[in-house]
Amino acid sequence: MEDTRERTPFLVSLQTICKPRCGKVRDIYDVGDQLFIVSSDRVSAFDWVLPNVIPDKGRVLQLMTGYWHDRLQTQNDVITTSISAMPGHNGLLDCLSDSIQSLAGRTVLVNKLQVIPLECVVRGYLAGSGWKEYQQSQSVCGIDLPADLVECAQLPEPIFTPTTKADTGHDEPLTPDGARAHLWSWLNETLGTNSAHKPWATELFTTMSQVALDLYTRGAALALEKELIIADTKFELALVPRDTGRISRLNWELRVVDEVLTPDSSRYWPGNEYAPGRPQNSFDKQLVRDWLADEAGWDKNSPPPELPDEIVTRARERYIELYERLTKDDFAWK
Q1: DSSP label at 117?
Q2: Which parts of the chain fold into alpha helices (H)?
Q3: Which of 13, 24, 32, 57 is most buried (most C-beta within 10 Å)?
Q4: Cβ proximity of 219 and 256 under 8 Å
C-alpha cells in the first residue's frame, strides 16, 4: 500500500512564502528559477514516512552531501548553503532570518534544472535487492555476474544498475536496454518527438553510467581510507545546455543534483568489521527497518507505528558516527 498522507513541513512558517513540495525527507520551495531545499529529520521505511523523526538526520545528509561535492569536485546545481547568502526571493531571506538556528546545516539553494527520471544506482558489493536477484538469476539488472558469489561479496568491478524514478511507490529496476528505452521515451515527452532522440538516449545512458561509476569509484576509494566501505549508492543527474541556448542532442551536459553519498542514498559498512557471506553492520536506517520488520509486527500496508526512543537514539548516534568518521570533524549539534 502506498503512503499518501500529507507531510508537515520542517518549518511551518516558510509556508508564508509558498507551499512546499514535501518529499520523504526534503521540503522543496519553488522560488522562480531556483529551488530552496530544507533537509528535514523525517525518516522513511518500506515506502512509508514514519511518525517519528531522527533528530539532526537532515543535517547529516546535507553536510555529507556538501563534503562529497567538495571532495569529488562535482559539477552540480548548488548556488549556496549559507542562509546569509540567500537572495531575497519573495521575502525568503526575511523569513529565514527568524529561523537561523533551526535551519542551520539543513538548507541549500540550487538552480532549477531538467532532472532526468532515472536513479543512477551503482553497486560495488552484492547486497540488498541485488543479492536477492543474484540468487535467482546469477545476474543483477541484466548484468551477468560470476558464479558462487556470497552475500555482501565485493564485485569484480562496480556495475551500473539504474532504476526508474517514481514519484510514488517503488522504483523499478531496469536492464541497460530498458534504461535506454526509458530515456528515449522521456526525451520525446520532454523535448518533443524526434527520431534523433533514440541515438541520443544511447549516448545519454552511456554518459550517465560513466559519470555515476566515476563518482562511486572515487568516493569509495576515499571512504576506504577512513575504514568505511560504500557498498552501493544512487545518484541523480540533470540535463543542462553546454552552451547558451536550449538543450539539444548537440548542446547538453550533466549536473549532479540531490544528495551525494549520504547514508540515505548509500549503504555504508565499517571496513574493520567486513566479512562477506553474511549481512553487514551498517551506518544507515537498517536498524529502523529491522525493528519494523522483526519486532513491531507491522504489516507494511497500514500506517507505521512509532519507533521506540531507544531505536531513535541509536539511529541518531549511527548517523552522527558516520559523519564524524568520514569527515574527521566534530558534529556541531551533539
Answers
A1: S
A2: 57-72, 92-97, 100-103, 128-137, 176-191, 197-224, 286-290, 309-327
A3: 57
A4: no
Q: What is the CA radius of gyration of the chain?
A: 20
pLDDT of the residue at 38: 93
Average pLDDT over residues 252-278: 97
Grid cell for residue 179:
534504461
Confidence band, pLDDT 50/70/90 cuts, at residue 101 = confident
Residue position matching grid coordinates 565499517: 270
pLDDT of 90 higher than 60 = no
Cell 526571493 sits on residue:
89
End-to-end CA distance of the chain: 36
Domains along the chain? 12-112 (3.30.200.20), 115-272 (3.30.470.20)
The residue length of the chain stands at 334
Question: 301 burial class (0-12, 13-18, 19+ CB within 10 angstroms)?
Answer: exposed
Question: Can you tell me the mean pLDDT for 214-224?
Answer: 98
**Cell matching residue 118:** 532515472
Amino acid code (one letter) for 254: L
Average pLDDT on 100-123 reads 93
The strand pairing partners of 111, in sequence order, are 34
Query: Contact, 237 vs 259, CB < 8 A?
Result: no
Distance CA 112, CA 103 (A): 21
- Measured in whole angstroms, the distance separating CA 82 from the mean position of its chain's CA atoms is 21
To which residue does cell 548516534 refer? Answer: 317
Q: How far is CA 83 from the centre of its chain?
A: 23
CB of 29 closer than 8 Å to CB of 35? yes
**Neighbour-count burial for 161-181, b at 16+ CB within 10 Å, e otherwise:** bbbbbeeeeebebbebebbbe
pLDDT at 315 over 90: yes
> Are 263 and 60 within 8 A, CB to CB?
yes
Q: Is the pLDDT of residue 67 over 90?
A: yes
pTM tops 0.85, yes or no: yes
